[in-house]
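From the shared-data thread, chain only:
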Amino acid sequence: MIKHTIIAASLALLAGSAWAADGGAPPDAQRIKQGEYLSRAGDCIACHTAQGGKPFAGGLGLDSPLGRIYSTNITPDKDTGIGNYTLEDFDRAVRHGVAKDGHSLYPAMPYTAYARISPQDIEALYAYFMHGVQPVNQANKDTDITWPLSMRWPLGVWRWMFAPDVVEAAPAGQAADPGQAEVLRGKYLVEGLGHCSTCHTPRGFALQEKALTDADGSAFLSGGVVEGWLAKNLRGDMTDGLGSWSKEDIVAFLKAGINDHSATFGGMSQVVSDSTQHLTDADLNAIAAYLKTLSPVNEDATEPLAYDASAAQALRTGKDQGEGAMTFLNNCAACHRSSGKGYEQTFPQLALSSTVNSADPTSLIHIVLKGAQLPGTATAPTQYAMPGFDWRLNDKEVAAVVSFVRSSWGNQASAVSAADVAKVRKNVGAAPEPQR
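Structure, as tokens:
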């Protein structure tokens, strides 16, 4: 306790000295700590830290349809970072999408979601980035976008067309109903700091999110393709959404990266590792409570899928000699079992999986080709991994096994073609198709 008190006092003294040097009122250590927590909730480190680079120093390449954009240095370095930003400058960049020098930011910076962050939380974030982050002198990189697409003025038009109004006050106070208060907190985190719609909402003609909140329609959080992965439907659909997941299932997934239904993969693995596992149980429960309020996209499909053991019996007795079944037995059954149920909290089940039953098979094909690895979390530190089969299976074989999985054990998804696999193989940089 004494050690913690000394550390806190030292941090407060250091922070106060730095803030005073900027000519403003010094934040206390608690304010900086709050800002650090909020930066975790916003997963700022994910985009603003290059692989092998220093925290928040930028330089991470972000692919877009226009070309590659590099994240910026947001450490308090005065020459290359945001050390000369005032609170107003910081707020303008984070919530309005406009840099200190007046140029518009690319919406790879999710300011359309951050517009919902309260002014009080912006102040805490500013305190953390100015006084809780180590300054790093690292110059920013120019984009790889060629002229005329590199011109910035159209981004101002884009902001005018698609960016929401910035909130002017903190979320409403404590609701009379504790359950409603929890849902409102979850709504604030999902729609704002968590910027979940950035990946989990489909894009429109101008690459804008088709819905920024649930009030904008059922496209919100209905799923979107990002970097060769399908960011799944987070609405209440039974087959491909969260309809069959309990609130506890959602919390477990965000905390550990795995639950009885699924395991994380792609960009979501990083989100769990760097962001959601660090949130309080109260906030995780609030996020789950809010997600469970979202109605399904398909209002008519209200019944969950039912398990069917016929595929498991056919595999065990050798009655199914089809290419998909044999490929599954030779490559997949050791971990996912002939029952399709996998091993609890280790290898995820394929039977009745929302990932398997998604209309878009992108993620399933991607995983078969390149594999995936669980993040190491405090709750589930073992990083189980699935190898990629891009070097071993040709497009026809991958299509056969994916189609088999999507139609077995009660799964009811459509078949996949070799052409579908070839497209994903190219887009995700998998190994060239092996020749037989």
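Confidence is low (pLDDT under 50) at residues 1-23.
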